[in-house]
Amino acid sequence: MTSSGNSSKIVVTGGAGFIGSHTVVSLINAGFEPIIVDDFSNSERSVLQGLKTILGRDVTCYAIDCNDAAALADVFEREKPIGVIHFAAFKAVGESVAKPLKYYRNNLDSLLLLLELMPKYKVRNLVFSSSCTVYGQPEQLPVTEETPRLPAQSPYGNTKAIGEDIIRDAVRAQIPVKALALRYFNPIGAHPSAEIGELPLGIPANLVPFITQTAAGIRPNLTVYGDDYDTPDGTCIRDYIDVMDLADAHVEALRKLNESDDTSSYDVINIGTGRGETVLNVIKTFEQTTGVKVNYQIGPRRPGDVEKVYADVTKSKNVLGWTAQRTLAESLRDAWQWQQKISVKVSES
């Protein structure tokens, strides 16, 4: 499917981030040659060493801002890639509410620049990092790709919806780009080696890092926001997907685009497990898997929280030939091994 040399190079913007770094591993395992583009504003350079340990080799990395047109053009000129996976975006929901212009500028300008550069350098394939946030609180579950998008709850979420629209409109205008927008549900876990994983800056915005940090004693307790929802145990339901499964989905998306004879195309695909898990069940599964108790308390509902959302994964199975393989317990085990490793590093430094 791919061959040696330039014909397998893939630019991975934000490739040092949580999802990006794991996707780099999957790309190399699949015979692609990832080219990381990351300014390390929301990631750590230590990720590159983790990747080297896992892969037994260095990965090409350009430490540049994806909004720097000249620098990004230089990457395309030098590397001559066949595709782009676009992860690079600010993603903290709370910060996006406080600093909306920062989010619109970064998240949309970088996409616009890519769509301008790709035709110029004859780069055909684009996989766009989207999100299930575009669905809001859907009226029916599970959500399919046909489920109506609802107004975003945050500027961050809105940048994903607008990003999808920008790609759709560009493709309608017949720019020579084939694009797939992958709507992720809730990525969790880490590479089983514990060499790379999620590195939230400051207070985690996601459940699993908060669980592992609480279990590690970094945080005194975990607050579960609301236990009076219309769910089996009263807590919110999400579709938690292992980051390695998510990484593999990007490889299959690239393969799909690579094999297509279309000149210009656009589609969206849900990437989840198809299963909903309550917050309390995630905590209990973590405790059962690791043998470590989590000090949690029930708090009031958090404004803006979606009660329940999980994916219909029929399309990812039929179009990509991909389904999630890893269990919730496996994901939580790997997340805990990663947390233990980085906690040791912090204590030694």
From TrEMBL:
<comment type="pathway">
    <text>Carbohydrate metabolism; galactose metabolism.</text>
</comment>
<comment type="similarity">
    <text>Belongs to the NAD(P)-dependent epimerase/dehydratase family.</text>
</comment>
<dbReference type="Pfam" id="PF16363">
    <property type="entry name" value="GDP_Man_Dehyd"/>
</dbReference>
<dbReference type="InterPro" id="IPR016040">
    <property type="entry name" value="NAD(P)-bd_dom"/>
</dbReference>
<keyword id="KW-0119">Carbohydrate metabolism</keyword>
<keyword id="KW-0520">NAD</keyword>
<dbReference type="InterPro" id="IPR036291">
    <property type="entry name" value="NAD(P)-bd_dom_sf"/>
</dbReference>
<dbReference type="GO" id="GO:0005829">
    <property type="term" value="C:cytosol"/>
</dbReference>
<keyword id="KW-0413">Isomerase</keyword>
<feature type="domain" description="NAD(P)-binding">
    <location>
        <begin position="12"/>
        <end position="334"/>
    </location>
</feature>
<dbReference type="GO" id="GO:0003978">
    <property type="term" value="F:UDP-glucose 4-epimerase activity"/>
</dbReference>
<protein>
    <recommendedName>
        <fullName>UDP-glucose 4-epimerase</fullName>
        <ecNumber>5.1.3.2</ecNumber>
    </recommendedName>
</protein>
<comment type="subunit">
    <text>Homodimer.</text>
</comment>
<dbReference type="GO" id="GO:0006012">
    <property type="term" value="P:galactose metabolic process"/>
</dbReference>
<dbReference type="InterPro" id="IPR005886">
    <property type="entry name" value="UDP_G4E"/>
</dbReference>
